[in-house]
Structure formats: structure tokens, C-alpha cells
Write a structure and sequence with these properties.
By secondary structure, the chain is of the alpha+beta class. The chain is built from 17 helices and 20 strands. A seven-stranded antiparallel sheet has the order 17-14-16-15-19-20-18, sandwiched between helices. The two termini are 28 Å apart.
Amino acid sequence: MLRLQHIAKTGEKMSTPALQPLKHENKPATDSLAAAMQALKLMLGDRYSVSESVRLVHGKGEAWHAPQLPDCVCFPESTDEVSRIVKICAEHRIPVIPFGVGTSLEGHTIAPLGGVSIDLGRMNQVLQVHPADMDCRVQAGVTRKQLNQAIRDTGLFFPIDPGADATLGGMTATRASGTNAVRYGTMKDNVMSLTLVNAAGEIVQTGGRAKKSSAGYDLTRLMVGSEGTLGVITEIGLRLHGMPEAMMAAVATFPDLGSAVATVMDTIQVGLPIARIELVDRDTVQAINSYSKTDYPVRDTLFLEFHGSERYVEEQVELFVELAGSHGGSDLEWARHEEDRNNLWQARHDAYLAILAKYPGTQGFTTDVCVPISNLAEIIEFIKAVLVDSSLEGHILGHAGDGNFHIVFCIDPEISAQVDEVYRVNDLLIDKALEMEGTCTGEHGIGFGKLKYMRREHGDEAIAMMQAVKKGLDPDNIMNPGKTVTA
Ligand SMILES: Cc1cc2nc3c(=O)[nH]c(=O)nc-3n(C[C@H](O)[C@H](O)[C@H](O)COP(=O)(O)OP(=O)(O)OC[C@H]3O[C@@H](n4cnc5c(N)ncnc54)[C@H](O)[C@@H]3O)c2cc1C
């Protein structure tokens, strides 16, 4: 059994205990819960639900973890309503779990102590678009595709694209990224300001529209990645980007995974400003072909995209072809027209569903480490060797240009040997990533599933500081309890 270790900055190894999930004795008293639920029902009418199916959707999400249901679900339509809901919960010390569309993968929305799920889905208005300043303001329930549809005539776009059509509130709360992050950054780089409701139910504004500011603590950045544990985000100010004059997408195939990874590393290290460079192993390509009815060569593959002026895109393509060729890259298939590019990226985004479809009756377990780019080849070689000896098949794919990749396993969570095996492989992978000064999650977040790695990654002092922030902003621990950092 792998010993849990934190690799200190000095290189010295020391054991530290894992953060512990919540126990059921922390549940709120029944009469407090009943009083809160009665008040919420009166306030919201048919925008309040205790239906089992509605609670199940909210108490599970995409995660493979066992569902744990909230006691009720509320569907507010304004910041003011969110504030009133949280004030009721604060008065009765009832857990509050913000909810976007439930595509997070680490049990972020499960409700270990029950409580109130706040579904932001009805807060789906694009409030302001400022083309001259290239920014906008949206309600938290707007999804990334809705935003891009709403601004399509402005010549601007919002680049961050987790495979799922997640809400911008959820993406902010998980500090999400996706295929474009290698060029445009993650949510951390693209959120400018927020309106949020804190654990006391007060409405707080953070940040502004200025391109930069050095005025005090950066509360916006504190909230980005807070996973609903510090407050409910109700509005978001976002940076937008100019639609490039030319875009060229492509797939390139390689004799083996190592050659594909070496090409990614060279591409980033020579400073080629590629917009997307996605690694997909041959088994996943096969699954994509079968699910999406495509006919990509079944080889280890990079999905690519180049942005810029016509001339600049040509220059980037020329340099990339040279780099890929030096690692045996071939079969380059180009997609210039919007429809062809969209089809190519739809196939890439459907990779997770394609893998699931290959193993009917199973659930997906996805992990996502991220390492400094110079370590990417070594960690992928390491984990491939682990997978050769494993009883489970793991599919490797991800946003390799950021040093970020996923392994997707399809398992039956009822079979304990399979669960033990994914945890064993995950532990080995994360241990290796941390040794390389990487992270246990590049983009999916901690939720409930990766709590046990937090102390190893950050060390005792940083965890104590996070706990102090949590305690200061949410003294009764009502905001998404049991996630991210325990009180
Ligand atoms: C097929 C697939 C592919 C994916 N690919 C990627 C990827 O490439 N990159 C990536 O980053 N992620 C990816 N994900 C994960 C997922 O899409 C992200 O975690 C997403 O950001 C979650 O958004 P959501 O609206 O579904 O939030 P939810 O799942 O509903 O919530 C996620 C967390 O945020 C909190 N939250 C939600 N809304 C708010 C709010 N308004 N205020 C405060 N807290 C809130 C919740 O409490 C919870 O802790 C993928 C998921 C799937 C299923």
C-alpha cells in the first residue's frame, strides 16, 4: 500500500494525515431542517422541490461516487432570492449546496449532510456585453454555449470549453479549463468580477471591469475554485476574446504515445502559440470512431487548432508539421471550414461518452493530473507501465499542451476490487505528479473525491490557512460542507 507523503519544498518527505470527509452525526437537527424547508416552500412555491428524482439529479451529478441527496432543491431567479434562501439556511444552520448543471466529476454536488441544493439554472441571462472593452456580465446559470451563441454577432468569443456545456457559475467555482486553455488561460485568467452571496446571505461585489487592479485582497480569485464552499456566485464579469481571422484544425497521428507527447513538448517549448493541442491515445480514437462514426486512423493522435491571421496560421502550421515529422507524425488531416472544425472538436469532446459507450453498464472514473511540461513524457511513460500491469483498462487523453491529462476508467462501483484498483492507480499517478511539483487536479477540482490528496499537495501550513479562510467566511460550515477543505 502506498504511503501517503507530502514532498516538502526541500525535497524532504514527511507523512501527513489526509483530510477527513464529514460524518453523519454532523447533520442539522430535524426541527431546524423542517422550519427552513417550510420557509423556503412558502417563499418559492413551485420553484421548490422535494421530489426524489429531482433530489437525485442534484445529489449525484456526473461523479461516479454514490449519490447523497439534499433534502430539497430551490430554483431562484435573482441574486436577491439567493440571498433570502441563504439567510433562511444560515438562521437554521442548514447546509447549502450551489448547483450548476452537475457535470463536475469529483462528487462536488453530493450532499453528505443533506440540506438545500440551490440550482442556478433559471438565472441564465447575459446581462451586459461591452464589445469595445471585450468583456461581458452574465448570470451564473448561463452555460458556455449559451454565452457564445448570445455574442456571436460581436466578433468576440468566450474560449474556455470544458467538454460538457457547463454553467459559467460552475466553471468559475471549479476553476475550469479545457482544450483552449493552452492559448487563452483558465477561468482564473478570464473571470474579472463577481456578485456573490456569502454564508450569512449578504450580497458582495468583487473585482471590476478595469483590465488590472492592485486594490487589496483579490476576492475574485479567492472565489474562483472555491467549489461552493465560500458562497453562491450569482453574476460573473468575464473577459472575451476576438474571433481570430483564420482558424485551422487538424489531427496528426504518431507511431506511439511517446512520439505524440514529445511533439507536444517541443511545440510548447519552441513557443508556438497553438490554440489547442489534445492528446488522445489509440484506444480512445477507436472508441471515438465507433461512437461518433468517424474514421480517424487508430493510432496515438494529437487533435490541434491554430488561430491568427491567414499568414500567421500558415507559419504556425509549417513549423508544427516540421516538429511532428521529426517524431514520426503523419496522416495530418486538416479542417479549415467551421463545420469541419466543429465536427472534429465535437468528436474530441465526445471522447468521454465514447469511452463509456465501450463498456456498457459501467460508470466513468476520471482523474486529471497536471505537471510542468518538461515532465509530461516521464509521467506518461510511468503510468503506461502501471496500466500494463493493471487489471483495468485506462484511457489516456487530455490537454497535453498544459501538461494536463486524464485517465478514464470504466468500472462497476459495486465491485470493490475494481474500486480498489482505480484508487491504487490514482494514488500512484498523483504521487508521481506531486513528486514532479505538479498537482492532483489540473481542472476538475477537489470536491469530495480528491480531498485526501489536499494535505499532501499543499502541506500543513497552507491547509491551516485555507481552513482559517473557510472558518472566517463560513463559521457554521454551511456552504457545501465536506468539500475542498474540511473545517
Ligand atoms: C464529459 C465531460 C468532460 C469534461 N471536461 C472538462 C474539461 O475539459 N475541463 C474542465 O475543467 N472540466 C471538465 N469537466 C468537468 C465539469 O464540466 C466542470 O467541473 C464544470 O466546470 C462544472 O460546471 P457545472 O455547471 O456542471 O457545475 P456543477 O457540477 O453543478 O457544480 C460544480 C461545483 O461548483 C459549485 N457551484 C456550481 N455553481 C455555483 C455557483 N453559482 N456558485 C458557487 N458554487 C457553484 C458546486 O457547489 C460544485 O461544488 C468535464 C465533465 C464532463 C462530464
